Amino acid sequence: MIDDTPSLKVLVYDGDDKDIKAGALDKIKQAHNGDVQVYKFDDFLKLGQDNLVEPNHPQPDDIACLMYTSGSTGPPKGVQITNANIVACCGAVQSLIPHVIKEGETYIAYLPLAHIMEFAVEMCVMYVGAEVGYGNVKTLTDASVRVSRTQRSAHFTIIYILLNGMQNCRGDIATLRPTIMVGVPAVWELIRKGILAKVKAGGAIKSAVFNGAVSAKKFFGRGSIIGKVTDSVVFSAVAAGTGGRLKYAMSGGAGISKETQEFLSTALVMIIQGYGSTESTAMCALLPPEYHSYGTVGVPVPSVEIKLVDVADAGYSSKNSTPQGEIWIRGPSVTKGYYKNDEETKAAYTDDGWFKTGDVGQWNPNGTLSVIDRKKNLVKLAGGEYIALERLETIYRSSQYVQNIMIYATSEANKPMAVIFAHEANLKELHSLAGNDAGDFEAVCKNKAVRDAVLKDLNAVGKKAGLKPLETLQTVVVSSEEWTPANGLLTAAQKLQRKDLVKHYKKEIDVSSPSRGSGRAQRLGG
């Protein structure tokens, strides 16, 4: 490869010289007009020992990392993260949850380091000297296990571990047996649906026992005798799928539905939700386990101060009985701006240091913060009222037939519609229960009766969550195509590429759009 790497100046190698192909080192030394320096590792160390210099310590304001935003709302921007930002991030976590992230714990790292949540967690874990086991989504379980096309995704790899364990060899998670794990909402949603599907497949008695245990533990509490009995008798099999030592799991990147968070916190492990962004070095709010509750992202971390700024058009005001508004933050963990992008920096940061997150939040009576949507994803319907797309997606994603979902609406519509990447196993089961053959997944998704049933289930989920009539769905597009970063429909952080999704499904949306009239949309059935 030396001829194809003109920028190579120094090469350091290790190992036995006898293992090196004859003539290889000479060829490298002679490359680029003899401009490549080659050192054996021991000689390289001696070179430093013989030429000692004063250490060049990094300064607090030096840029330690350029991390790019996910690009879900526009071109990715390079966030300038300084050493001081990282120190503030680690300090905030240690001030707030030192009993969770501490020496002696074991963390499994498998998410991309280009995602600020993973970056921050690994920095905090390393700071306290806890164990880090590096895995890969393809090796979390036995790579030789034959699974379906859908199960080849990162999400289903994790589910396969939880439900089926290992075959032939042990995967990363069972080998490491972590005590701490992090995931995005899409992971936790699919884990919940996978557990429920496995329980249902066990028959009526097994389902009744499992559901009874869930209800009992919710009623009596996780620390009660009943809660401990259900853990050891019923939920131990689920816990064994993650190695049996998992104490806490963290969810970030987007909102997780209350139903999913509550279910997994009962049947698997406590799910701690947090909130942050690349611009805040992942820090903004975090909920300590002892104050565990649902529908909140926690309390402000010690490295950040938060205020809510009115969004008048949408009716969000800090003077409401429940204070609401755009979340503005500042503090030591808030970054200095975007790399070579003064225009975006000036638009997002105020002169006195506040970063405008673009997220809409509310202060709850107990002092915790809830994130209820993004300003850019507020849509005014034909009736003049706003709906919050991300909030609705968080709720509707818990439907048993949804693997991923995008809510879509325009100012011409009376109600929103949904575009979903369907949960293959559950949708095929629905199809077969109606007396049909299992059939091709794509054909199942196009079946009108199936789409009508999916729409009915989605709206039942919305009704259970207390959504307003205008927030219920008028129609649905059901897709068999997986949404991934590779095909451009998700970001690397598993967030929706909303514009690309709308463009990709433009034909289906145009046919099914509520703005074309409710009669036509219902007649087409999505």
**N→C terminal distance:** 53 Å
Mean pLDDT rating: 86
Quaternary class = single chain
Structural class designation = alpha/beta
**Count of runs of 4 or more consecutive helical residues:** 18
Q: How many distinct beta strands? A: 20
Overview of this structure, please?
With 526 residues, this protein is of the alpha/beta class. The protein folds into 3 domains: 2-49, no CATH class; 88-289, 3-Layer(aba) Sandwich (Rossmann fold), CATH 3.40.50.980; 381-524, ANL, C-terminal domain (GMP Synthetase, Chain A, domain 3, 2-Layer Sandwich). The protein has 18 helices and 20 strands. It has helices spanning 24-34, 41-49, 83-96, 116-128, 154-164, 172-176, 185-201, 204-220, 225-240, 258-267, 342-348, 389-396, 424-433, 441-446, 448-464, 498-504, 506-512, 518-524, and strands at residues 10-13, 37-40, 63-68, 78-82, 106-109, 131-134, 180-183, 248-251, 270-275, 285-286, 299-300, 305-309, 324-330, 355-363, 369-374, 378-380, 386-388, 402-408, 417-422, 476-479. The strands form 7 sheets. The chain has a 5-stranded mixed β-sheet with strand order 7-8-9-10-11. Strand 14 and strand 15 form a beta hairpin. Helix 5 packs parallel to helix 7 and helix 7 (185-201) packs across helix 10. The longest helix has 17 residues, at 185-201. Mean pLDDT is 86; it is low at 142-152 and 516-526.
